[in-house]
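Hey, quick one: can you model this chain's 3D structure?
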Amino acid sequence: MQVPCESCQSKFKLDSSRVKPTGTLVMCSKCRTVFRVYPPEIVRRRKHSRIKTQNLISYFSFDSNRKIISQGLGIALDISRSGMLLETPDSIISGSVLLTATDRFKKLIEVNGRLIYSKKASRGTYLCGVEFVGNDQRVKDFITNLIKEYNVEKNNLFITLKNKFYRGNSQSNQK
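Sure thing. Here's the predicted structure for all 175 residues.
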């Protein structure tokens, strides 16, 4: 079976008979990231398909008394009807999370979530799996708005930064 590295996306071959139903730890031969690989039939059982995004997300994590214990910014790498994969510079500490973003009209969009896992990636960031909780319509609106914003060029974080960088460099080169 072909296995893509979670970190650098390099692909390598792995004998599927060596992969346990509970998953097998493997190491990428290129970037040395260690991650878990599951048999193809387990991967296909995922409830909802994932959509790649690169939205900037603000998060707040709470303890059981709803007191903020950590906060920060991250990038939503993908999103599905049930949750998202968030890349953050620091580990998210708590299970209860509030995710927020803004749309192009500067309107706040937010959703509650529950931290499923937080693991360190090879480039020093953390990959955090967050499951959405709460009102189905609110979750649906959050997902819809994030996907719309990602597909609007001026609100795609990376396109915005790239355009600012190139615009800035071309102006400095003309002086």
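One thing worth noting: The CA atoms of residues 153 and 167 lie 15 Å apart.
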